[in-house]
Amino acid sequence: MTEVALDRSILKLGGVVMVGALTPLLDMTMVTVALSRIAAGFGVSVATVQWVSAAYLLSIAITIPTTGRLVERFGSRTMWLTALAVFCAGSALCATAWSAGSLIAFRVLQGLGGGMIVPLTMMILAKAAGPDRRGRVMSLVGIPAQLAPIAGPLLGGLVVDTIGWQWIFLINLPIGLTAIALAWKTVPSDAVRRSAGLDLVGLALVSPAIALLVLSLSGTATWPSAIGGLLLLTAFAVHALRTTMPLLDLRLFRHRPVTVATVLNFLSRFSVFGAMLLMPLYLQQVRGHSALEAGLLLAPQSLGTVLALPLVGRLTDRIGARPVALVGVGITVVATLAFTQVTETSSFVVLAIALLVWGMGIAAATVPVSVAAYHGLDPAAIPGATSLITTVTTLGASAGAAVVTAILQSRLGRHAGDPAAAFADTFWWVLVFTAVTLLPATMLPART
After folding, report:
1. What's the rounded mean pLDDT across residues 375-400?
2. Distance from C-alpha of 54 to C-alpha of 52, rounded to nearest angstrom
3. Same domain for 11 and 37
4. Which range, of 71-75, 291-295, 346-350, 423-427, averages the lowest pLDDT?
5. Which terminus of the chain has fewer CB atoms gathered within 10 Å of its CB, N or C?
6. Is residue 228 located within the same domain as residue 320?
7. Per-residue confidence at 360, pLDDT binned at 50, 70, 90?
8. Where are the transmembrane segments (predicted)?
9. Are residues 208 and 160 in the same domain?
10. Domain span including residue 231
11. Residues 61, 387: Cα–Cα separation, whole Å
């Protein structure tokens, strides 16, 4: 198979989009480091200040489903510039917050912009790359996501300790404004459908449904809220299948690659986010490290992903999504097996190697799925498919974190006095969840 080269224009576009994508990801990790200082500054409890993060994540989750239709109506270039502008405006307001309540409100505004940036990144690059270059170009999306967990806590800690927590928001402005200036010249305009209206009934059903489900899975709300969310989601599904232009087009599930990619993304995020929750807790609660030290010890995972992404993208374009994804899932299973052996004295060298390998496996398991999702899909359907897949993926990450947390709590009770054993047991469950993704991976298209 002849490989279509990546020309200068697509590389330039990828670089510009990555600058914009890095901004909200950095912000999310920096804010986590600053929460205790923000709570002290406003004189509020930890429970209250947690809403600074929860409100932002909730706003993102609600915004994602609308992105596809907004792109169809106004175009990806217009929405990209709008998303960055809204995010920057929210960041500036966050820095001027006079109370915890005002900060939470401004974080909601910030999330409205941030929630559109990730799906827009995928839409813009998927359209520009075309089927022959999509693997290599889509691998660029993963670079900001892996750099942020390393740079965010370090930069956030430095900023908070030296010039104050307000600057973790102000630092977004030069990056965001630079991204806007670059995008103004680089991101191409695309065809729009002026007749594409926003499905207000669908929005009224799916937004509270996602909010209730995310809050329930995060432990902020109770099980009745989860039931309410499921009922609203069911009502939305009925509505979407009867509407010509629904907010999320469920009829896209008739396209097998979209269905398989959605299931795979849900399951992989379920297991990955579960493991990403466990490892820092293990390092802090069992090994006694600070949050910053734990972040540094987890850096090999991000390094492994960044190193593997270029090769994974090239292989996906050359040999197809299925073999690369199967190898990727297999690698993550092997690495997770190493995590099941953790003790109070586990070698950090062994853990670092396992994390490095695990990061490589994550890259090999995720990039092919993103590419396969668009296989044989009309370019006009890419925005809708991206919103649909990203929405389900968000729920998968929340569900994985919630389920793994519940398992860990159960095991901590069973292994009272031996928390390392509780973490090892819980990693066995993560291993099972990871292995389950092998089945849908076999259903990916052989060639993309």
Report:
1. 83
2. 6
3. yes
4. 291-295
5. N
6. no
7. very high
8. 9-26, 38-58, 79-98, 104-125, 165-184, 196-217, 223-241, 262-282, 324-342, 348-374, 386-407, 427-446
9. no
10. 200-247
11. 11
